[in-house]
Amino acid sequence: MLDAVARVLRLDAAERSHLRALVRPARADAASPTSAESPRPGVRTLLDSLGATPALVLGARVDILAWNAGAHALFAGHLPFEEPPNAARLVFLDPATRRLFGEEWPAKCRDTVADLRIVVGRRPGDRALAMLIAELVERSPEFADLWRAHPVAACPSHARRYRHPRVGPLTLTHQLLDLGDGSAQRLALYAAEPGSPSAAALTRLVPSVPGVIAGRPSSGPGPGPAVG
């Protein structure tokens, strides 16, 4: 019956998956809805080994659980390196992030909400995630409008332009990869075309990379850095 409904509504693959999750929610994760998250040590080693290539780990509630120096310098050099924020809060509530995306910001906002819809559909009992959505609806008119519009889409890869305050224009390809360990955590990588002006700009962005990555256990939309 669900397939028949999906055909009538002309849903794409991501929307069909979201519909199934809403009707038949998956069994709750081994982690409770309010439990803390942390990437496994091997993932932290991977981030550190990527050098200046921006990379970060997104948690099940789109908290940035860890990032390397490249990702910090690209997205949030104005925020503490040791305390990665929630990615959705960063997009909708931080003015510096809005300036970074420039004319791409509306598309980034829509992609963020479309991804959050999938996340929420898979975690229907997650109170911390519900609190995050409620906060964004209250604090961001743009988020509230998009949430009511109900976009649903997976965003595994795209190319996007940035206006970085230190190194100028950048065009980077973004890859979002499921870690495949049942944690619902994802690895985000950002790369420039070899030999391009954007590749040269990335080397200026992080001229010397510290041999550490930043990350902290997260409980979702609880205490953390204020953005916006």
From TrEMBL:
Domain MmyB-like transcription regulator ligand binding as annotated: residue spans: 40-205
Entry coiled-coil feature ranges: none
InterPro entries: MLTR_LBD
Superkingdom per UniProt: Bacteria
Signal peptide residue numbers: none
Protein name: Transcriptional regulator
Organism from which the protein derives: Streptomyces millisiae
Lineage, top ranks: Bacteria, Bacillati, Actinomycetota, Actinomycetes, Kitasatosporales
